[in-house]
Amino acid sequence: MNAQESIEYGTNVVGGIKPGVEGEHLGLPVLPNVRAAVEKLKPDASAIYVPGNGTVAAMEEAIENEVPLIIAVAEHIPIHDILRIHQMLRTQSKTRLVGANCPGIINTWGRCRLGFQPLPFFQEGKVGIVAKSGTLSYEAVASTTRAGLGQTYGISMGGDVLAGTNFVEGFQILAEDEKTEGIIMIGEIGGSAEIKAAEWIKEYNRKTANPKPFMAVIGGIQAPPGRIMGHAGAWAAPGEANASKKIQILEDAGVTVVDHPEKLGEGMKKLLANRSKTTNGQSTVTSVGGGASQQRRGYHTIRQRPRSSAATTQLRSQQRRTLYIKQSQAFDMLKERGIPTVDEPTVKDEKFVSISIDREARQPCVIASPSTDPEFAFQQSRKFPFAYGSTEATSADFLESVAEHLKISGTAKDGLKQLVTQLVDIFMSKEAFVVQTKIALDSQGGIHVQGAKFGFDDAAFRSSGRQAEVHALRDIKAEVREDVEAEKEGMIYVKLQGEGSIGTIVNGAGLAMNTVDALVARGGSPANFMDTGGKATSETIKAGFRIVSSDPRVKVIFVNIFGGLTLGDMIANGILLAFKDLNLKVPVVVRIRGTREAEGQKLIQESGLKLDAFDSFEEAAARAIALAKGEETM
Questions:
Q1: What is the SS3 assignment for 559?
Q2: Of 220, 219, 188, 217, nearest to 359 (Cα)?
Q3: Pfam families in the record, alphabetically (predicted)?
């Protein structure tokens, strides 16, 4: 169906690949491998739709046969497999990767779709969009279409730890594109892509006469420190900026940041009108994003928005990607490798040494900081990337650089070498995504570990069946019950602290993060983050209601769905099913946008149940907050 839709849209699909099979589908040739396809069809791009455990082999085959562009849409690809792919890409100059875990790329004027973006929302226009989140990018598309602006390109970075194509690479295309007049970015917590984007935008604005305006939405302001928020890449490594810090840096670069994608269309329309007036020799300041905003430097918008508890990710945060073992278990791994540990910290002057992933370099790295004080983490942490699968991290020159940054000298360097060698071995052999330690020097100049937190990649186990021994260490009894129940249903649930009067059910991690952020910004108190996944079904929605309604704090449930692959009427039927089977007592506010939204809204409105259906997020959020506070009733 996807191929048929893309062909009807105008995409020049020349054929397909099915391993070991040769034939025909939709009147086009099906070939047994990429080599045969390259020889016979001469494709410019390969869109890979196979599941996560087969995606890597398909990418390797495409790279080996020098296909110019690879679009990988699958999620749950093991991190270490992707690290290996990026090591391959570093050795060649023929192939570019987009993804993985992304909806792909669409060019509206060229009538070309490589991926699964929902075509009804797109129209030829003047705004380019580069996004980490699929569902938030659909919101941005719908908003710019409603505003009469349309789009030129939709470019997806994807939500994984390692993106094949990043914001800056997307911006470079859009800045040069004659049809693109304004640029929108959709970012989130995790990595430094937004920081690098801000640096590029600042330089672009400095060098360009009448530069194209930029707008942004950044998700994850309310993300609990250390939790992975749906997307595999939605977590911040030690010393990385959190969402609030990213917003500040983007605003300082001249980007207009709004708190919900519904504001992007009208906001960009005003920015473009102002740019046109500036071109004609006039200067105008226009309000963007609501009356509470203040402007400086023309469109640079300052907003008072809720901030997370710290400006940067704290070193003591615990990243969580299903399996994050106990410190005692991490200590056992270290002791087996001859690394001294102490259960109770004996030295206050700690240093930080971690093996994780440098998303910008697309390589593993050592992260080092001479201090573990969270206040200085962002400023003092430094990344030292190294080639995947190499011995570079234990070379003399590499370790000398790390030691110098840590202010370690003399015989302690030998202890540092032993530590880094063993941490790299754990990272590689156990397929970790982060292996972090707090270290201290003893009176004899030796190094011992006073704290350790090790996180391992669940995709290696779930998608590929590897690392069963490591994942056997998981203690489900110690985890939050709702988290475990949601996982069984293929969803992600994170309980939030506080009053928690509004339960949330949302499809897509980016949209779920933004929903929580936006509710807090409007005075609400969400009980949870819930990502039902981009392919939610009626049964999924019913399970979501069961889990969310089990929290006694919840006074109203807010369902926020933007249907791309998800159908609005199917979601509505799931909500009605939940009411019937679960005997729900709390009121429910539903916002359904996207595919078959009118049909879904009609089903809700005509149900006769304690349900309210809305098209507008602002109206739906206001209603949910008022119900939670007892200011309104059904």
A1: strand
A2: 188
A3: CoA_binding (PF02629), Ligase_CoA (PF00549)
Cα 537 to chain centroid, rounded: 22
Distance in angstroms (rounded) separating the CA atoms of residues 256 and 217: 9
Strand ordering across the sheet containing 363-369: 323-324, 447-456, 432-441, 351-358, 363-369, 382-385
**In-domain check, residue 634:** no
Q: What is the CATH number of the domain that holds 80?
A: 3.40.50.720
Please check whether residue 318 lies inside any domain of the structure.
Answer: no
- For the chain, the maximum distance between any two Cα atoms, rounded to a whole number of angstroms, is 77
Query: Annotated catalytic sites, by residue?
Result: 231
Contact assessment for residue 65 and residue 35, using Cβ atoms and an 8 Å cutoff: yes
- Give 12-69 pLDDT, tens digit per residue: 999 999 999 999 999 999 999 999 999 999 999 999 998 767 899 999 999 999 999 9
Residue with tokens 């940054």: 405
| Total tally of structural domains belonging to the chain | 5
Measured over the CA atoms of residue 426, residue 428, residue 431 and residue 434, the dihedral's sign is positive
The answer to whether residues 245 and 121 belong to one domain is yes
Q: Which two tokens stand for residue 359?
A: 């998303």
Ordered DSSP codes for 325-388: --HHHHHHHHHHTT--B-SS---SS-EEEEEEEETTTTEEEEEEES---GGGHHHH-EEEE--T
List helix spans (H) across 444-537: 458-462, 468-471, 481-488, 509-521
Q: Which domain holds residue 331?
A: 323-471
Q: What is the pLDDT of residues 203-215, one digit of tens each?
A: 999 999 999 999 9
Q: Are residues 154 and 199 in the same domain?
A: yes
Half-sphere exposure of 196 (CA within 13 A, CB side): 17
Inside any domain, residue 261: yes
CATH (domain of 516): 3.40.50.261
My answer on whether omega of the bond before 100 falls inside 30° of 0, hence cis, is yes
DSSP state of 211: P
pTM, 2 dp: 0.89
